[in-house]
Design brief:
4 helices; globular; 86 residues; mainly alpha
Length: 86
């Protein structure tokens, strides 16, 4: 069985930025939901629980976590990762 998808350990700066986004809310629901996904994953929650929390598809949650692990908080802005661009 494959190992569960989990966000890598957050740096202090990353954790503070994600908490700021979630606490203050955001004009972008996408930004808010992605921040929630990452905080929940870093807190030890598994993908199905996170998907239910943010009302998203499990594959979407996995994609956000994988992108965070690859490119850090740049995954919040919604642009394609460098590895997926032609």
């Amino acid at each position: 069985m494959a190992e569960p998808v989990r966000a890598r350990r957050l740096t202090d700066q990353e954790g503070q930025r994600l908490q700021r986004i979630v606490r203050r809310g955001s004009t972008s629901s996408v930004l808010y939901r992605r921040a929630m996904m990452l905080l929940a994953s870093a807190g030890g929650n598994r993908v199905p629980v996170i998907a239910q929390l943010v009302q998203a598809d499990e594959d979407t949650v996995r994609d956000v976590i994988h992108r965070f692990n690859e490119i850090g908080l740049a995954c919040l802005d919604g642009r394609p990762s460098p590895s997926t661009q032609p």
